[in-house]
Amino acid sequence: MYSGYSMIKPYLFIGASDKKGRGIFTRERIPARTIVEIAPVIVMEKSDRQHLDRTLLHDYIFEWGKAKDQCCMALGMIAMYNHSCASNCEYFMDFEEGSMLIKTVRVIKKEEELTINYNGDWNDGKKVWFDVL
After folding, report:
1. Dist. CA 81–CA 37, nearest whole Å
2. Burial, 104: exposed, middle or buried (Cβ in 10 Å; 0-12, 13-18, 19+)?
3. What is the reported pLDDT for 17?
4. N or C: which end of the chain has fewer CB within 10 A?
5. Which backbone phi and psi does 61 adopt, to 5 degrees?
6. CATH assignment of 7-116?
7. Distance between CA atoms of 93 and 109, rounded to whole angstroms?
8. If you average pLDDT over residues 8-17, what whole number do you get?
């Protein structure tokens, strides 16, 4: 996909998210279908996931692999994007390159929080493992 490099748009920043702790925001308007971040991941095995699921890191890792039998920790700011069932961004995983990218699905307004859907599809309304605010 985007072999061998990482990128975070300079207008993104981590800020206080209403009732969600911290999140990713933008200092500029972002057009729809803009790639705002590409980051490498650290891939871990199923046995590692069993340990991580008993820690705070459980909320920051992603299922990984075509069979979803591994997990990964995304570097950059990817782990800081909050969940929304109707998110304004989507994420893509490149299993061969060991990377993830975040792309907007609509125009994002200046100072707006960027969100992803933890279910995988940007508009998937299925219940997640925590209470959605």
Report:
1. 11
2. buried
3. 92
4. C
5. -100, 160
6. 2.170.270.10
7. 25
8. 96
**Of residues 63, 122, 70, the one with CA closest to residue 91:** 122
Four-point Cα dihedral 118, 96, 7, 71, nearest 10: 40
Backbone angles phi, psi at 38, to 5 degrees: -130, 130
Q: Are 25 and 111 in contact (CB under 8 A)?
A: yes
- Catalogue the E-assigned strands of 10-132: 12-17, 21-26, 35-44, 61-64, 70-74, 82-83, 89-94, 99-104, 113-116
Query: In which band, very low, low, confident or very high, does the pLDDT at 29 lie, cut at 50, 70 and 90?
Result: very high
- What does the block give as tokens for 15? 């800020």
Structure token pair of residue 1? 């996909």
